[in-house]
Write a structure and sequence with these properties.
- The complex is a heterotrimer.
- Chain A is α/β, with parallel strands linked by helices.
- Chain A is 25% helix and 29% strand.
- Chain A has a single domain, classed as Barwin-like endoglucanases (Beta Barrel), CATH 2.40.40.
- Chain A has a 6-stranded mixed beta sheet with strand order 2-4-3-6-1-5.
- In chain A, helix 1 runs antiparallel to helix 2.
- By secondary structure, chain B is an alpha/beta fold.
- Helices cover 32% and strands 23% of the residues of chain B.
- In chain B, strands 1, 2, 3, 4, 5, 21, 22, 23 and 24 form a 9-stranded mixed beta sheet that branches. A 5-stranded parallel beta sheet of chain B has the order 6-9-10-25-26. Chain B has a 5-stranded parallel beta sheet with strand order 11-12-13-16-20, sandwiched between helices.
- The radius of gyration of chain B is 23 Å and the shape is globular.
- The termini of chain B are far apart.
- Chain C folds into 2 domains: 182 residues, Rossmann fold (3-Layer(aba) Sandwich), CATH 3.40.50; 167 residues, Dimethylsulfoxide Reductase, domain 2, CATH 3.40.228.10.
- Chain C contains 18 helices and 22 strands.
- In chain C, the strands form 5 sheets. A 9-stranded mixed beta sheet of chain C has the order 5-4-20-19-18-6-7-16-17. In chain C, strands 11-10-9-14-15 form a 5-stranded parallel beta sheet. In chain C, strands 1-2-3 form a 3-stranded antiparallel beta sheet.
- The radius of gyration of chain C is 23 Å and the shape is globular.
- The relative contact order of chain C is 0.19.
- Classes of the chains: A alpha/beta, B alpha/beta, C alpha/beta.
- Chains B and C meet through helix 1, strand 7, strand 8, helix 2 and helix 3 of B and helix 3, helix 4, strand 8, helix 5 and helix 13 of C.
């Protein structure tokens, strides 16, 4: 397999839309849209050979998820951002180092173009009972 | 009636009613002490037991953000003191800063029934009422802080004592307060910019008023209102070697305040242990020159009746220091070489510099700690009027309240003091007179200093601190016979019995028996609601609303503690302050 | 104006830790129609309070009566051996009291959402203390403000406009008299609102904080660069911080959720403490949920500890990393989950969520959330601060009374009442 990806430091955090749509309701389309993307910078976009908005697959040591790409001109190359929520959480582990707090920020990740992939729904991510 | 009880054959110490160790029956009905009860009253035979009014602690930090910060910051102080839940009581921890439930239970076990939290930041009062919901078995009073409030300063600056009195009245009503607390007047404000004020006439930054003016104005306002409890003062320059001098100067400055009742003290100096540090002759204000000023201060106390005091006795062992004196707490942190934990909690507008919290350990090997231990004892054993002198440890500053039995034993037993002087640093024998003092407090004197005196000073003596007709049936029964047991010679027995009352009755209900709390009783809160002249009230509310609108960032309308948190707990006393003109 | 229209002023907003209490809420026919002063999120929360609601209790997705749901909950809890009670930060304090009571009764574990937000801040405080700030004091006095690892423009939209860019008693012209810095690893929307954006390398917060501390103490460091910043720039920062009259550090999850976690906080605290020897410095965690500070506080006075409390032995014990929600789930330890006013399925790592799927979950929330979908029992509740009153704690410790401005939907009760019913029902089941 000749998958070519870009290594990034992946960060999660709050956004205004994530906050707004969370209050609206987590089953809303707006919430889905507010948490299922990944911001990357122009260089990364170019290296991946994709257009902003194309699906990308993100892999970490602990998980994989497909999200929509989004251009953020203010990002430094090498940093990528996903709003906090179920998509980001699919990429991290539960080890808390005896603190109770998993590491939600600064995760090593690789981004691949995923033109054929569909962005899963939140239900598909968190799964059923 | 079913809740009638008669306590028979106990030996009663009730100094307020002049009863000193007489065998006497006490009748209880409807939570009150009454003259007689019906034949169907429950009888409890207390032959061979000692009976006193329920204990009154007039200065103990048991709630509020600083206590919660201490609990949160130092889980290690509670980890090893589990307190199991039972069918009737809640669980918790009982270290230096017990959780709310256990705070109540531990007081009940010792026979205490009334306590005063002496540092309430008024704007945070809602939380305190929520906490009181969870402090069982006690009647509680709250003293809001006024000594560094910008609103106080404004009235002081304008020389408007009536306006200041109206502000005090508004706060007492809004938050359910019992009296006025002043901490390091002006000094904690200066701490908002990293400073402090140690002298009476040093101006407060940005305000051009002095601690003298602040203190004097507040004491005057308290007396104008006719509050039952005089101004409760933590002076400037706390914890500084030689500060007995500045403390006396502060008390002198308050002599000219006119009390609203003849013969009444106009200021209560709290935790004198921290306010009355002496200095060797030709010394400098550094720890190595520390000497006890207990006797010196007792001489001043005996001559000057315009103030009352409590000890803030230092006990050896781990403590949690917490005061509204932010700069003092920072200096204590620096004294540890920055090794200790240090928290600081500002309260917007009302305590700009903020209160500090530093866990600390008083050790007998330290000369300074040993002398600080000796000072309040030397004082207490030299005072001639115990009615003005109250036993406290300034919980949890000098030691947790669970150490009261030890302090009582020190006061009652020269033998025990001797043993501790041996354990303490030898400087105690050179720079204090403690080892020479023969005096031993009698049981009557203990009943005064732990019950009658604090009730009187707090102005709640109608129902508290005594066992006369009409008093609340708050009663402690200790399981020893004072005729048969020589307490002074057996200090370990003092500690044993005062640690664990045989019975504690609160409002006629038996809450504890030999160390076991059997009842989770809701707290009650005593507050004072001064009634003002309408004109003054209208003027003052408008001014306060303006200042809150300008200086705070939450609304005037949301300031007052809502009735739903208070009405089932509060017992307000209305006083007539309408003579103060607008 | 119709008779049913009314306006309520000074309403506290129950979204973030700012607890802004200046909302003007207009109500028509029992519904909120206008929110003046609220931020974009506040408007969504109040005007959209009826969206996505669950209006009836459910057991395995089927509607049931409240009594049946409570009975079922009591049975689940009674048959569990290690119940985890979690959430609490988005409800009012009286509900917390009932939750701890249940935890004590069944000897369960009770944790609040601070374990995944500012829990590490509390751990930092436990090693060093904390010179805190309070919001009106900052507004009245602070001439240098630093946001570190925090993005208030997204998470606390009115923090800067309401408390920082407003004039205060001694900061008459905030534009001139007050400087605002932002330290972060990426240029967030907050960067537009500050005087200086200082970008540091990801996960280098600890090094940068410790370097600043060394420089404040006057040490000479033999390095050119730390965390992406030139040493000269760091020196300048340290000097500037020392010469402020009243500095304030607001810090966010950028410190607690990244590498170093509580050590980052500890370093920040020690920096502020060291600065206190030179001038006035204070600090404040940017608390997210409107009552997460309250959850820590209620837990502290009632159990003795701020979060991560275990009653297995009949008295409270405290151990983050053991009795914290993520750990107890990821370890496979909890055998039932009572979730109140939070959404662990949306916010926990996937393997903690995997365990949630294996155990019976009781979810009490006004809205349908991710956790609702996996819950065996869902009980809808009234929204605190909108449909029922209560008390909450602002990020700086100020308690604020929350108002009830409209009635909840028919038959929907506040969290505290639902929990009381569960407790009472549980007492009956346990007696059998």
């Amino acid at each position: 397999m000749n998958k070519v990806g870009v290594k990034v430091t992946l960060v999660s955090g709050r956004t205004l839309m994530q906050g707004k749509t969370m209050e609206k309701g987590k089953t809303s389309q707006e919430y889905f849209e507010a948490v299922s993307y990944c911001e990357i910078d122009a260089t990364t976009l170019k290296a991946l050979g994709i257009e902003a908005g194309d699906p990308i697959q993100i892999e970490t040591q602990l998980g994989t998820v497909v999200v929509r790409s989004k251009l953020n001109k203010n990002l430094t190359p090498g940093i990528a951002f996903i709003p906090c929520g179920p998509y980001f959480n699919a990429l991290i582990g539960s080890y808390t180092g005896q603190t109770g707090m998993p590491i939600y920020k600064n995760i090593e990740a690789t981004i691949f173009p995923a033109p054929e992939e569909k962005i899963p729904t939140i239900d598909e991510i968190t799964g059923d009972k | 009636m079913n809740d009638e009880i008669v306590l028979k054959n106990g030996r009663v110490f009730d100094p307020m009613n002049g009863i000193n160790g007489e065998i006497k029956d006490i009748c209880i009905s409807n939570g009150k002490i009454v003259e007689k009860v019906s034949g169907s009253a429950k009888e409890i035979d207390l032959k061979g037991s000692t009976v006193m009014p329920g204990g009154v602690d007039m200065h103990t930090h048991i709630l509020g953000s600083k206590v919660n910060m201490a609990r949160m910051m130092c889980p290690e102080t509670n980890r090893h003191s589990p307190y199991l839940a039972t069918k009737n009581t809640r669980g918790g921890v009982g270290g230096i800063t017990p959780n709310s439930y256990v705070t109540g239970y531990l007081y009940s076990i010792m026979g205490y029934t009334t306590v005063v939290e002496p540092a309430l930041p008024p704007e945070k009062a809602l939380s305190s009422w929520e906490e009181i919901e969870d402090i069982p078995g006690l009647d509680i009073g709250l003293l809001p802080l006024f000594g560094n409030s910008m609103i106080t300063f404004r009235y002081i600056k304008e020389g408007d004592v009536n306006g200041l009195a109206a502000y005090i009245a508004w706060i007492l009503k809004s938050v359910g307060g019992l009296g006025v607390k002043v901490v390091n007047p002006g000094g904690t404000y200066a701490w908002a910019y990293g400073g402090n004020i140690r002298e009476l006439d040093t101006p407060v930054p940005q305000w051009d008023i002095t601690p003298r003016q602040i203190m004097h104005g507040l004491a005057e306002a308290v007396e104008l209102l006719g509050l039952p409890h005089q101004m409760h003062l933590h002076p400037n320059n706390l914890g500084k070697v030689g500060n007995v001098e500045t403390t006396i100067a502060q008390l002198e400055a308050l002599k000219s305040v006119k009390g609203h009742k003849k013969g009444r003290s106009v200021v209560h100096l709290t935790h004198m242990a921290f306010d009355c540090l002496g200095m060797v002759e030709d010394g400098k204000p550094e720890w190595k020159y520390l000497a006890s000023a207990g006797e010196e201060f007792a001489k001043y106390f005996n001559k000057n009746k315009h103030f009352t005091t409590d000890l803030g006795q230092i006990t050896f062992g781990p403590v949690m220091t917490m005061t509204g004196d932010g700069p003092f707490q920072f200096s204590l942190y620096q004294l540890t070489g920055g090794k200790a934990k240090w928290a600081n909690l500002p309260v917007e507008v009302e305590l700009p510099g903020g209160a500090g919290i530093v866990p600390f350990n008083f050790v007998p090997t330290s000369p300074a700690h040993s002398l600080q231990w000796a000072t309040p004892l030397e004082f207490a054993l030299n005072v001639d009027d115990i009615w003005r002198c109250v036993m406290t440890t300034d919980h949890p500053n000098g030691g947790p309240f669970m150490k009261y039995p030890l302090v009582i034993a020190w006061l009652m037993s020269k033998k025990l003091r001797g043993e501790w002087i041996e354990k303490a640093h030898k400087l105690v024998q050179e720079r204090s007179h403690l080892s020479e003092i023969e005096r031993e407090y009698t049981l009557e004197e203990i009943a005064i200093t732990t019950r009658a005196a604090p009730a009187k000073i707090l102005g709640i003596e109608r129902t508290k601190g005594h066992l006369g007709i009409g008093a609340d049936a708050d009663i402690t029964v200790y399981g020893f016979d004072s005729e048969k047991l020589n307490l002074a010679a057996n200090p370990e027995k003092i500690i044993k019995h005062f640690s664990q009352a045989k019975y504690t009755f609160k409002g006629g209900v038996q809450v504890a028996k030999k160390g076991v709390v059997g009842k989770h009783l809701h707290a009650r809160v005593f507050s004072i609601h001064p009634r003002l002249d309408d004109g003054l009230s209208i003027r003052s509310e408008k001014e306060i609303a303006d200042m809150i609108g300008k200086w705070y960032c939450h609304s005037y309308e949301n300031y007052t503690v809502p009735a739903r948190y208070r009405e089932h707990l509060e017992i307000p006393t209305e006083i007539d302050s309408t003579s103060i003109s607008a | 104006m119709s008779e049913t229209r009314k306006t309520i002023e000074n309403v506290p907003c129950t979204f973030c830790g700012c607890l802004c209490d200046d909302l003007i809420i207009e109500i028509e026919d029992g519904q909120i129609v206008k929110n003046t002063n609220g931020c974009a999120i506040s408007k969504e929360k109040l005007l959209g309070c009826n969206e996505n609601r669950l209006l009836q209790p459910l057991i395995n997705g089927s509607p049931v009566s409240l009594d049946d749901a409570i009975q079922h909950v009591a049975e689940i809890i009674a048959s569990s051996r290690r119940l985890l009670i979690y959430g609490l930060s988005s409800t009012e304090n009286d509900a917390h009291r009932e939750a701890y009571k249940i935890a004590e009764l069944v000897r369960g574990v009770v944790d609040n959402t601070s374990s995944v937000c500012h829990g590490p801040t509390i751990l930092g405080v436990q090693s060093s203390g904390e010179p805190n700030a309070m919001l009106a004091e900052v507004r009245n006095r602070s001439d240098l403000i630093i946001y570190w690892g925090s993005n208030p423009a997204a998470a606390h939209p009115r923090h800067i406009p309401r408390y920082i860019k407003k004039e205060g008693e001694y900061i008459k012209d905030p534009k001139e008299d007050r400087e605002i810095w932002l330290v972060d690893i990426r240029r967030t929307t907050t960067a537009r609102m500050v005087n200086k954006f200082i970008q540091i390398n990801p996960a280098s917060d600890l090094e940068v904080l410790l370097t600043l501390r060394a420089l404040v103490r006057g040490h000479v460091l033999d390095v050119d660069e730390v965390g992406g910043l030139k040493i000269d720039q760091l020196k300048e920062m340290a000097e500037h911080m020392k010469s402020a009259k009243y500095g304030t550090l607001f810090f966010g999850l950028g410190l607690t959720q990244s590498r170093g976690s509580h050590r980052n906080i500890d370093a920040a605290i020690r920096l502020i403490q060291d600065l206190s020897a030179h001038t006035k410095w204070t600090m404040m965690p940017m608390r997210g949920h409107y009552n997460v500070a309250g959850a820590n506080k209620t837990s502290t006075w009632m159990t003795g500890y701020p979060y991560a409390v275990d009653y297995a032995r009949g008295y409270p014990r405290y151990q983050p990393g053991e009795y914290t929600a993520v750990d107890i789930l990821a370890n496979g330890e909890a055998d039932a989950l009572l979730n109140i006013a939070s959404d662990p399925v949306a916010h926990f790592p996937i393997d903690a969520v995997e365990h949630i799927k294996k155990i019976p979950v009781i979810n009490i929330d006004p809205k349908i959330n991710m956790t609702s979908k996996l819950a065996e029992v869902n009980i809808p509740s009234a929204i605190a601060g909108i449909e029922c009153d209560g008390a909450a704690t602002r990020m700086d410790g100020l308690p604020i009374y929350l108002k009830k401005v409209i009635d909840p939907p028919e038959g929907i009760l506040p969290d505290r009442e639902i929990l009381r019913m569960i407790y009472n029902s549980l007492m009956k089941v346990l007696k059998k």
